Amino acid sequence: MFVATLSVIFIVVGVLTRNCDTSAAVGASVGLAAPLQCDLCQQKEDHTTESELNLLHHYTNIPVYRKDGDVILGGLFPLQRIENRTGIIRYKNVALAEMMAWTIDKVNADENVLPGITLGYEIRDTLNNAPFASVQALELAAKNVFGVVGPGSSMVAIHLASLLGSLSFPMVAYSSTSDLLSDSNRFRMFARTVPSDKYQCKAMADIIHHYKWSFVSIIYSPELYGREGADELTHLLEKKNTFVDKFHPLIESKITDQDHLDQLLKGIVTKPPNRNTSP
After folding, report:
1. Whole-prediction pTM value?
2. What is the pLDDT of residues 1-40, one digit of tens each?
3. Which three-class secondary structure string do you get for 90-153?
4. Do residues 39 and 54 touch, judged by C-beta distance below 8 A?
5. How far apart are CA 129 and CA 52, in angstroms?
6. What distances in angstroms separate CA 104 from CA 23, 125, 191, 203, 254, one per listed residue?
7. CA 54 to chain centre
C-alpha cells in the first residue's frame, strides 16, 4: 500500500511540475543560485564535444538542493543554460523545481496522505546536457532515492531512460514528448505526464486535410524534436494525399530570430513548388 501510494504521489509531482503556476511556488525551499562559471561551450546536438567532457570533470560547483526525509525523490531540471562559458539562470525552470519542492511540502503537511512518512527531495541541474545529466542521474541512483522527476528535454530523457532503466530506477518526465519514448520495451522504467508528439502532428494533419490544402511547406527546428515532428507530419500528410513541397530547417543559432523566419517564409511564397524535395 505504501509503495502504491508513493508511486501515485511520484506521478502527481510530475504532473504538477508540468502544470506549474509560478506564483504558487513562491516560498518554496529551493533557492536561486548565482550565475556559475564552467568549461562548457555551447552544446551541439548528438555530439559530445571535448568541452562537454571537460564539464564532467571540472564543473563541480553546481549547487544541489536537498531536503531530508524518510523517502527521497530526485529532481532533474535544466536550471541553467551555458552562454560564453557562464551558467545563466533559467528562471522558468527554477520555478518548475520550486513547484516540485512546494508539492512535496504540501504532501508532508497532510497527515492523511502518508501518515508517519516524510518525503524529501534532492534536486539537481542537468544544464540540458545529456552527458552531464547522466552523471547527476547516476549519483541519485546510487543514493537512497525512490525515483526521479524529469528531465524536461526529450533528447536528455532518451539518454537517461535507457541508462536508468538498466538499473530498474524509475523516472517520470514532465515535458519529454518524443514518440521514441513510447517504446515501453526499451524504456520500461519511464513514464511521462504529457502526450507523445504524434498527437500534435495528427492534429496538424487533420487541420490541413480539413481545409483541403493541396501542398504545404514545413519549417522545423534542427534538433531531434523538430526532425521527428517533420518526419511524422510528412508521413501523415502522405496518407491524406497532401503534397509536402519543401522542408526548411531553422538555423540553430537563429531559432528565435524573427528576421530569419521572415526570410524563410518569403522564400516559400515566392518560389514555385518543387516536387522533388525531400527532408
Report:
1. 0.72
2. 545 455 555 555 655 565 554 434 433 334 433 333 333 3
3. CHHHHHHHHHHHHHHHHHHHCCCCCCCCCEEEEEEECCCCHHHHHHHHHHHHCCCEEEEECCCC
4. yes
5. 8
6. 16, 18, 19, 35, 38
7. 23
